[in-house]
Design goal:
- This protein is rod-shaped.
- The N and C termini lie far apart (76 Å).
- By secondary structure, the chain is mainly alpha-helical.
- Helices cover 68% and strands 0% of the residues.
- The longest helix is centred in the N-terminal third of the chain and has 32 residues.
């Protein structure tokens, strides 16, 4: 029985480490790799009159 309990605790530790690594990667992506507020110069806006032409 001791070996069964040792294997079970090892598997739970492995799953917990995978979960912590996934959460750390998600936090890194969310807080570090995503851009902040976009600069108004980089936003592509339609030229005047193009919206009216495409909706008619």
């Amino acid at each position: 029985m001791a070996q069964h309990e040792k294997a079970a605790s090892g598997m739970m530790l492995f799953v917990a480490l995978i979960l912590v690594a996934a959460l750390a990667l998600a936090a890194l992506y969310f807080f570090v790799l995503t851009p902040g507020n976009p600069d108004s110069n980089t936003i592509q806006r339609p030229q005047e009159g193009t919206l009216e032409q495409h909706t008619r």
